[in-house]
Amino acid sequence: MRNFEFFEPKTIGEASSLLVQYGGEAELLGGGTDLIIGMKDRTVTPKYVISLEKVPGMEGITYDDTNGLWVGAMTKMRALERSSIVRERYTALAEGAEEVGSIQIRNLATLGGNIAHGSPAADTAAALLVLDAQVNIADGNGERTVPIADFYLGPGQTVLQAGEILTGFSMPPRSAKSGSQYLKHKIRQVMDLAFVGVATSVSLSNGTVADTKIGLAAVAPKPIRATNAEAIITGNSVSDNLLQQAAGAAAAQSSPISDLRCTAEHRREIVAALTKETAMTAVARAQV
Amino acid sequence: MSEHAVVGKGVPRVDALEKVTGAAKYGADINFPGMLHARIFRSTEVHAKILSIDTSEAEKLPGVHAIITQDDIPTGRAVFAKEKVLYYGEPLGAVAATDPDIAEEAAELVKVEYEPLPVVQDVMESIKPDAPHLLNDRTKDGPRRRVITRQLKKLSKETGEDNSAEIERLNAELGGLDDEIYYNVAGETHESAGDVEQGFAESDVVVEGTYTIPRVHQVYMEPHVSVAQAEPSGKLTVWASTQGHFAIRSGIAGVLGIPLSDINVVGVTMGGGFGGRFNIQATHVPAVILSQKTGRPVKAQLNREEEFLDGRPGAGCVIKLKTGVMDDGTIVARKALAFWDCGSVAGGPIANTIRIRGVYKFPHLQMDAYAVHTNKSGTTSYRAPGAPQAIFAAESQLDEIATIIGMDPVDLRMKNMREEGDQVPAGATEPIVGYKETLKAAADAVDWWNREKGPNQGWGVAVGDWTNGCGPGAVYVSVHEDGSVRLFHGSMDITGTDTAMAQIAAEVLTVPYEQVSITRGDTNSAPYNTGSGGSVVTFTMGNTAKLAAEDARGRLLELAAQRLNTDIEHVELRDGKVSLTNGDAPKSLSLGELAAYSLSTTGGPIVGKGSLSGRLSAPAVAVQIAKVEVNPETGNTKVLRTVASQDVGFAINPIAVEGQIEGGVVQGYAWSMMEEMQYDEKGNVNPGFVDYRVPTTADIPRIESVIVEVPAPNGPYGAKGVGEPSLTPTLATFANAVTDATGVRINDLPIKPEKIVNALKSNGNGSR
Ligand SMILES: Cc1cc2nc3c(=O)[nH]c(=O)nc-3n(C[C@H](O)[C@H](O)[C@H](O)COP(=O)(O)OP(=O)(O)OC[C@H]3O[C@@H](n4cnc5c(N)ncnc54)[C@H](O)[C@@H]3O)c2cc1C
Prior knowledge:
heterodimer, A: about 35% helix, B: Aldehyde Oxidoreductase, domain 4, five-stranded mixed sheet
C-alpha cells in the first residue's frame, strides 16, 4: 500500500470541498472493504483518503407509510439485514445485504459503498432496482436525486460527479400485497461473489400481478432490469408456463460474459432459473 | 481402553493456550531492530527468453539496500531465472529495503526485457510433437511402444531361430504408434502384475474412463516467511516457518556451498504446511543472501498472490483408467495411464499412481505414469501426494461398475477387499489391516443398507488408503527434581504431535500429563530429525518418545533399587512413584525425590534417550460416505451428511485424530467441488481467494468421525499415521454422491455447478 493522507471531515460540505480540492487523487472511504483491498493491490492509489465516518446523518434506516424507506449511505449491511422493516417490506434488500461477504465484512461494508463502487455484481444492486430506489446525491451546495436504474454507467462507472457524495437511498412505500426476493448464484454457501444475481418484486391486485420488477446483477456491464420479462408477467396471474416464458425473456435480455467463473451460456441459464424462482417466491410472499 | 492412563485420552494440546491467546510467535511475528524487508521480483511472461534485467532504477530508490539475481548465488544452483522463464511469477531476483512498501515499489522498478515463446498449459498437448519443448527435445515411449521396443531389443539379441517375421510385425506396429512418442516428459514410472490384456479378455464387463484432476494449492493459512541474520563470522541464523528445519538447513547449505555447522535454523510456530512447507527457495534463500549482502537481518514474506503464482502446489493429472470385472463383482484387471502436470520442475507424485489398485485383490495390473512439463510453477507434496487423484479415478470407476452390474457399492468393495496375507497387486503380501472393519464401521454409522434419499439426493461411498513413513527422529527426556518431565527434540509440530509425545512420556513415566512439557530445539541444539510430512511424526516421534521415556524409567528404577537396597526386579514405577514389590515395608520414592537423588550419584542426572529410523509402518484406510442434494436447475450441491471412518491403529489423542479426519474431509470436499488453480496462456488466472475457492464452515455440516483401531505392530501403542489417509477417498466420495443424486457422472474435477447443468442437459434428463 502506498502512503496517503487521511481526512475525517465533519460535514458533507467539508468532504465535498476536499474531494474537489484533491480531484482524482482523493477517494472517499465508507467501510473500506472495497477501497482498502484495492489500495493493498495498488489498483487504486489515492494520495488522500476522506472518511465519511464522522459526517452526521449518513447512517440509519427510517420508514413511514407516506414516504417509505430511507437508508443512509453509511448504513452497514449488517444493520440492513437485521432491520425488521427492511426484512418485512423490502425483503430483497435484506437478502441482498445478507449475501455480502461474511458477518465481519457486513459489519463494515456500507450500502453506499456497495453501489458507489459501481460493480455490476454488487449484491444490493438488483434489489434496489426492483424496489424503485432513488439515489440521493449531495455536494455541499445542493442535492439531487437519480433513479438507481440511471445511476450506473458501466463497470466501475457511475453518474457521481467531482465533489459529489452519495448520501442515501429512498424507496417508496410498498403495498401489503407485495413481495420480493433476491437470489444469488455462487459456488460457496457464503463468502462468494455473485456469478449471477436476480431480484424480483411484485405487487398483486385481484389475483393478478399488477406490477413486476426484475433486476439482474453480474450479467451485463451494469445491473439491469429485465423489462421484457416484467412485461410478460405484469397483468397476468402466474403459471408455470408464464414464468417459463418470462425466464426465457430475462435470459435473452441479459448480456453476460464468459470468464474464469463460468460461461455466458451458463449465466443465461441461471438468469432463467433464478428469474422463475424469485418470481414464484415474490408472488408467494405477496400473498401472505 | 482403560489400561492406559494418558494415551487414548483427548487431553488439550500442549500449545493450546499460546495459540488461543495469540501469544504463539509465527514467522511473521519475528522482528529485529534494523531489519530489512525483501521483495521478490517476478516474471511477467509465461514462457520467454530473458534478454536483460535492469535493476538500476530500483537501486536508486531511497531505502533500497540490496538487489540480488541469479548471479549472486554462489554455487550457481537455480534460485532465480536467468536465461529463460517458464511460468508467470517465476522469481528473477529480490530486493531488500527498509520497509515492505519500498521493497515492493523497487521490485516494480526492475526492468526486464523478454522474447516471448509459445506456451503450453495442458499435459495432453504438451506431450505432442508440435508443443513447445520446454526444457529439451527428448522423447519417451508410451506404454505399448515401451513393450514393443523391449521385445525388439530382446529379439535382436536372440540368434539361431529365424525371427525376422516377428521383428517385421513388431516394427510395423511400432510405425503406427507415433502418438505414443511423448515430448516434455520429466519422469516416468511403470508397474505391472499378471497380464492385464488377458485379464480384460477374461472379464465380463470392462469399463474405461478418463479422469481429470486439477492442480490445487495447499492453502496453508500462513504464507511462506523467513527471517535471516548473517553474522560477520559467516555464521547464519534463519528463523523459518517450515515443516522441517533440518531439511531447510541442508537445503541452504547446498545452495550456498557452506558447511551445515555454519547454519542454525530455528523452526518457528507455523500456520500449516500440508506438504508445501519444505521449500527453501520461496523465502529462505533470498532472505539469507540479502542478509549476507547487507549485514542486516532480512525478512522475506510472500503474500497470497505470490503463494499462488509461485507456490509448489499439489499436482493435477489426467488418468486413463480401465477396469475389468466379472458379473459377480470380482475385480480381474486394472490398467492406468497417467499424465501428471509437474509444471516447469521435474517432480509430481507419479509413483503414487499405483494407488489405483486400492485395497482390493486382483491378479492383473498395469500402471504407466508420466510427469509432463507445462508453463506452470513446479509442484510438491500435498497431503498424501498423488493418492486423492489416483483414488478419485479408481473409486469413481468402481462405482460406475457397481451401477452397471447392479451391485451395491459397499458390497462390491467389501467383496474385493484384501485381508491379511493377501497378495497386493504388484506388491508384497498384506500385513494385518483393517480395511473391512473400517468400511463396515462407516456403512453401519449411516445404516447404509437402509439408507433413504429424497428427490435430487444421493449417497456416495469411497475407500482410500495410505501408508505412513518413519524417521529418523530422536528425543531426550529429562526428569527434574520437582518430578516434572521435559522432552527435547527437533520435530516440527503441525498437528498436535508434541501433545502425543507428551502423553506417551506421561504414560510411560506414570505421571499426570500436566507434569510433562516439551521443547523443540533449533538445528544447533536438537538431534537430527526428519521433517513433518508423510504422516511420520506420531509414528516416529511417538516411538522415540516412548523409547526415551522407557530409558529414563530404567534409570529411575535402577536408582530406586539402589536407594532402597534391593534388586531392580523388586521395584516398580506406578503413579509417579517407584515402590518396592517384594512385600517389605511399603517404601516408595517419588520421581522428584529420585531426580534430586540422582544429582549426587555418579550416574548423574536422569536423562533418557530415544532414537530410531525406518520402522516398518502399517497400511491405513479411510472410508467416507456422503449424502448430498443437487439442485438440477442451478447445479448447486449441498452436503447433507458426511461420515468418515478411519483405521488409525490406536488414537493416542482422539480429539486430535478427529481434527485430522475432519480436515482431510474438508480439503477433499473442496478439491472435488470447488478448488482448482486455473491457467491459460497468461499463466495462473485465479491467484487469490476471490476465485480460488476454499470452503467455509457453512459449506459442510458436522463431520461424523468413526475411529477404527486395528493396531499397527510397530506403532507407539499401535498408532498409525493419521494425517494423510483422510483426504484419500474424499474426492471420489462426493463425486459418487453427486452421481447418485443426478444420474450423471462428472470425471473432470471440480464438479462445478455448470458441469452438472451441462451434463444433465446432454443426458436428456435435465429439468427443462
Ligand atoms: C472478503 C470480502 C467479501 C466481499 N463479498 C461481497 C459480496 O458477497 N457481495 C458484494 O456485493 N460485495 C462484496 N464485497 C465488496 C464490499 O464489501 C462491498 O461492495 C461493500 O458494500 C463496499 O462498501 P464499503 O463501505 O466497504 O465501501 P468502500 O470500500 O469504503 O468504498 C467503495 C467505493 O465507493 C466509494 N464510496 C464509498 N462510500 C461512498 C459514498 N457515500 N459516496 C460516494 N462514494 C462512496 C469509495 O470511494 C470507493 O471507491 C466483499 C468484500 C470483501 C473484502
